[in-house]
Every structure is written in C-alpha cells, then in structure tokens.
Amino acid sequence: MMEGLVDKVKGFLLNPSESFRKSRGDSVGMAFRYYVVLLIVYTILSAIVAAGIGMFAFNDMIIQLGQTGVVGDALAGALANMGFFVTAMIIFSVYLFFIVALFGIFIKGLGLHVFVLLFGGIKGLEQTLKTAMYATTPFFLLGWIPYVSIIGAIWYVILLILGISETQEMELGKSLLVVLVPILLILLLVVLGGIVVAALIQGVLEMIPFIG
Fold it and tell me: Quick one: which of 51, 39, 72 has its CA closest to 143?
C-alpha cells in the first residue's frame, strides 16, 4: 500500500498530466484515502512546527517584557504560566484545520464543479472531486514548511488546472478559467467586505462627537 502511495505521489509531482489521465478510473474512495493519508502527515508536521515556532515567539515575548521594568517583569511572570495554554491553542487550531479539510474537500470539489459545468465539463462530479483531492499533493508535502508553503500552494493551483483539463477532457484555457474565476470571485468578496467594514468604522467614528 505504501509503495503504491509513494508511486502516486511521485506521479502527481513529476508527471501530473499522465497521472491525472490514469486516475480517471480511480474511485472517489481511493482518492479520498490518498487525500486523508497526506492530510494526516501534513497535520502532524504542521502541529510540530507551529508549536515550536509559537512557543519560541511566546518565550521571546516574555523575555522582552521582563526587560521593560517592574511592571513588565511582573506581567512576564504571570504570562510564563500560560505556556501550556498557548501550546494547547496551537494544537487545537491545527486539529480544527484537519477537521475542516477532512469534510471541506467535498464542499470545495462541489463548488469547483459548478465552474466545470459552466465552462463545458461533462465528465461528472466524481472526476472533479478526485482531481481536487489529488491536486493537494504538493501543498500537503510542502505546506507545513514556513515560507516554502507558498510554493506548495502555487503548485497546488497548477496541478488543479492540469487535473481539470485531463479528467474533464477540457481545453487548458477553460480549465484555467475553472480554477481562477472562483479565486477572483472570493478575492472580490474580501475586497468588498473590507470596503464595507471600513465605511462602517468611518461612519461610527464620525458619529462619536454627536453622541457625546
């Protein structure tokens, strides 16, 4: 089983187009098991790295506070007892990501398939779900490494584009639109949301003198 998993990982990293072509006959269950194994590996490594970096930053903050005077030293002493809480919060956050990713992949696949249909894909939801699962390979392998994770994220998007093209038998330009259009829509939503929040804050600040 492990040998087959490693071969699949190598295939999606080194020869993605051929690997996606071969995956057309895979079941959704097979793709999901592959996805879950990589997700577990990613979650464990992310928890270790996040806990290490988090505790280093927390301890450094305590040291800095301790050098600011009597009040800072007292505050540093109080915060020193919260080390376990900080570690627990970090691990909880990573575990929460695991749960969201475990179930969220189906929602992501369904949302992606809306755009597959919009741009002419006819090979069915199963192919889109499998593609969404297999395309996460580089992100799960690299995403836990600080800074390097951006490479994994970009690689994931590239694999998603190639995968949609192969499994849905679409032109590469159309599969590019399938992936990029929802990303642009989400970015637009974030920008508009930011504008609304900024306008609300500005309105509230302008009302404060009249309230007083």
Answer: 39
In this prediction, residues 5-13 reach a mean pLDDT of: 91
Other Cβ atoms less than 10 A from the Cβ of 194: the count is 10
Average pLDDT, the chain: 89
User: Residue 142 and residue 155: Cα distance in Å, rounded?
Assistant: 10
> Residues near 158 by Cβ (< 8 Å), separated by ≥ 6?
16
d(CA 6, CA 137) in angstroms, rounded, equals 11
| Boundaries of domain holding 149 | 2-211
- The fraction of the chain above a pLDDT of 70, given in percent, is 90
Q: For 5, list phi and psi in degrees, rounded to 5.
A: -65, -45
- CB neighbour list of residue 127: distance below 8 Å, 6 or more residues apart: 24, 167, 168
| pLDDT confidence of residue 154 | 95
The CB-based long-range contact list for 14-17 (8 Å cut-off, 24+ gap) reads 16/158, 16/159, 16/162, 16/163, 17/162, 17/165, 17/166
pLDDT band at 148 (very low <50, low <70, confident <90, very high): very high
Residues 6 or more apart whose CB falls under 8 angstroms from that of 79 comprise 58, 61, 62, 65
d(CA 120, CA 203): 45
What's the domain count of the chain?
Answer: 1
